[in-house]
Design goal:
alpha/beta, D-Maltodextrin-Binding Protein, domain 2, 2 domains, 6-stranded mixed β-sheet, 3-stranded parallel β-sheet, elongated
Length: 283
């Protein structure tokens, strides 16, 4: 074989290996005529169960995304299979191919992008604090010497730890497995505060037996851009999902989903309005 041909063959090997290793999620969905969506059961109001059925802001968005994929793939009908996920296994389900996407309240971060990909943002929020009024705390500094619950291994925990360090506040961080465990500890008086995404804390505050005993502080401890978790390295699938989101953001569909979730008189924050606009990409 001529030397040039050998060189070209060797150069082609890495590209071939890379192409073979890249996932083809759209083909799997088209061939199976179904899409598997992982969803959180404890992320009210974004993803939770009602009458044993997945519902919430993120779930409704993903239902519309599935409908768009059905049209893009010209595969009708496209069955949607739902798989319950936790904060611990949500990304593993997508990474291992057990779900095609995850719809919940997952924050897109650079470190997580080493394992999975993300869609365009679907919501923006901040890390906040729900406290027992009896603590007298009006800001993070008022929780010095107190116990603060947070789900271990989350962006909320990192934001909380960073804020405590930056503001020189000495408090005990108590890791919990999920928000239900955290709210139970808060109600029982085992902890003085619970840290999580602000909008989720609003939902949790409505679930306690006596809401008047708790208060959501004004502190914004960290920026939380939510996105749909997707398989890493599948550009075609990410494009198809983002195309669907762009269609939703540019139509009345997003207004319907937002008001159904947060109430008929609820108004999106200025940051959220900007996010919708920036991700309404034209064809």
């Amino acid at each position: 074989m001529p030397r040039l041909a050998i060189v070209l063959a060797l150069l082609a090997v890495p590209a071939l290996v890379h192409a073979q290793g890249a996932p083809d999620t759209l083909k799997k969905i088209r061939d199976g005529k179904s899409i598997v969506i992982a969803y959180r059961t404890d992320a009210l109001p974004f993803s939770f169960e009602e009458n044993k059925q997945p519902t919430g802001y993120s779930v409704e968005l993903c239902k519309r995304v599935a409908a768009s994929l059905e049209q893009q793939l010209k595969t009708q009908p496209l069955a949607v299979k739902w798989v319950a996920a936790t904060s611990q296994n949500r990304m593993d389900l997508v990474r291992k191919g057990e779900a095609h996407m995850e719809c919940g309240s997952t924050t897109a971060t650079l470190s997580r992008m080493e394992q999975v990909d993300f869609s365009s943002p679907i919501f923006v929020d901040t890390t906040g604090l729900l406290v027992r009024k009896s603590t007298g705390a009006k800001a993070l500094g008022g929780l010095a010497g107190k116990k603060i619950a947070v789900i271990g291994g989350t962006t909320n925990e990192r934001a909380l730890q960073a804020a405590l360090k930056k503001q020189l506040v000495s408090a005990t961080v108590v890791q919990v497995k999920n928000r239900d465990e955290g709210i139970a500890a808060l109600e029982a008086g085992a902890v003085d505060a619970l840290s999580s995404d602000k909008i989720l804390l609003v939902g949790l505050a409505g679930k306690v037996k006596d809401p008047s005993q708790f208060e959501l502080l004004a502190d914004d401890l960290g920026f939380e851009p939510y996105a749909i978790v997707l398989p890493r390295g599948d550009a075609n699938f990410r494009l198809a999902v983002n195309r669907a989101l762009a269609q939703i953001y540019a139509s009345d569909a997003i207004v319907e989903i937002f008001r159904r979730t947060f109430g008929p008189n609820a108004q999106p924050s200025p940051a959220l309005v900007i996010m919708y606009g920036l991700n309404s990409f034209p064809e």
